Amino acid sequence: MMSSSNVVIMFGLSVFLLMNQVVSVDYGTALTKSLLYYEAQRSGNLPRNQRVQWRANSGLKDGSDARVDLVGGYYDAGDNVKFGFPMAFTITMLSWSTIEFRSQLEAKEELSNALDAIKWGTDYFIKAHPQPDVLYGEVGDGDSDHACWQRPEDMTTPRTTFKIDDQNPGSDLAAETAAALAAASVAFRPSDAKYADELVVHAKQLFDFARNHAGIYQNSIPVAGKFYSSSGYEDELLWAAAWLERATNDKTYLDYLSGAGNSGGARSSFSWDDKYLGAQVLASKLVLEGKSEGSGIWGQYKSEAEQFICSCIQKGNNNFKKTAGGLLWFLPWNNLQYSATASLVSAVYSKYLTDAKASLQCPGGVVQPSDLISLARSQADYVLGQNPKGMSYMVGFGSNYPTQAHHRGASIISIKKDPNEVTCQGGMETWFKKDAPNPNVLDGAIVGGPDENDGYADSRSNFQQAEPATVTIAPFVGVFASLA
């Protein structure tokens, strides 16, 4: 029998191991805060029930240069730009989280907040889609915005609008927005069928736009390519078709999925740029339910989805890297966004397997649905403080969390406390360079996260690790709800 001292010698993480055994994590509070975060990211006229009180109205003239109302939506990360491509993925993932774990959200009295978070995005997308083959895909300019450090309420940078249309296509942007609207319609269907119907109309039009006018969106909106360059659009078309099938039960979208020439192959990540895995998982659900046969391309979808999951749980032929502390490790820049999507897929697939009374056969052995929930829990626990640094990577959660998140609004005194204008460079000198905690707690924000050695530097200038983004938190909403 191995003594506890031997365990310490082996792992060098004695405190971390003890924490894992005795500390129970408050997933309910993490869930509440994760939805609160989206209120801090709101652009536009803030509603009466706004809970994040250090924010005020902003971006009230967005769209005026094009004579279209583009007020609303979300600021992307720590900046003040509205990037349509990652915003759409954020809403798709918030919707997926809400659909799969609706009863848990309801039990924790967070369902209305989750739907509000989704609707803040979908209302904006409806505005941004004034004609079937027109979609506004960005407001603001990344270069000028990133050269300034201002509260959203003080913005002096250009709020230029950028769009795709039949002459300047963007199949990836249009299809991802279609996926977001279709997924949101499923989330709203039980409580607001009229709104769900409206979302489906826009989703169908955008899917047709994406199919009929092929092209990568950054060729039409070059300024977006510097920050969110798309690697292709086949994945978004599959992802959108899968969500439209779920939203409409229309055989058209089933046929699109079955007729696809490329199922994506085994993926190495799931993100705002690469949705193949998402499409594969939704297709696998159809196979597990018996709605689609398990051979041909449907068998490929399921096999490829399960290869990814097996690699996450370390029972595949090509397992994903894990840090010594147990975090799934994909890429250096904002790694937690990839850990988040992998965690949500694990939780969701656990549900699909349970419903089908099935298990997963990995090269390294049989995996039960409970094993997949354990994997998702391990990643959530790591993020919430059970890691070698004993640090929560969610701002405002626990007693030790990042105090200098790379975020303009949080790092500058609230306009309600000091209404004096913060200038572009004045904000940089006074607030960005200030070595002190942010004056506003950005509750629920999950920063980019630690490096591959479980290291983290809490510094505002460390944007690679310290900047939270809307795409990171959305999948964790579902993970926290599944565990709460």
TrEMBL record:
<dbReference type="InterPro" id="IPR012341">
    <property type="entry name" value="6hp_glycosidase-like_sf"/>
</dbReference>
<dbReference type="InterPro" id="IPR001701">
    <property type="entry name" value="Glyco_hydro_9"/>
</dbReference>
<feature type="domain" description="Glycoside hydrolase family 9">
    <location>
        <begin position="27"/>
        <end position="479"/>
    </location>
</feature>
<dbReference type="InterPro" id="IPR018221">
    <property type="entry name" value="Glyco_hydro_9_His_AS"/>
</dbReference>
<feature type="active site">
    <location>
        <position position="406"/>
    </location>
</feature>
<keyword id="KW-0624">Polysaccharide degradation</keyword>
<keyword id="KW-0378">Hydrolase</keyword>
<dbReference type="GO" id="GO:0030245">
    <property type="term" value="P:cellulose catabolic process"/>
</dbReference>
<keyword id="KW-0136">Cellulose degradation</keyword>
<dbReference type="GO" id="GO:0008810">
    <property type="term" value="F:cellulase activity"/>
</dbReference>
<dbReference type="Pfam" id="PF00759">
    <property type="entry name" value="Glyco_hydro_9"/>
</dbReference>
<keyword id="KW-0732">Signal</keyword>
<keyword id="KW-0326">Glycosidase</keyword>
<comment type="similarity">
    <text>Belongs to the glycosyl hydrolase 9 (cellulase E) family.</text>
</comment>
<feature type="signal peptide">
    <location>
        <begin position="1"/>
        <end position="24"/>
    </location>
</feature>
<protein>
    <recommendedName>
        <fullName>Endoglucanase</fullName>
        <ecNumber>3.2.1.4</ecNumber>
    </recommendedName>
</protein>
<dbReference type="InterPro" id="IPR008928">
    <property type="entry name" value="6-hairpin_glycosidase_sf"/>
</dbReference>
<keyword id="KW-0119">Carbohydrate metabolism</keyword>
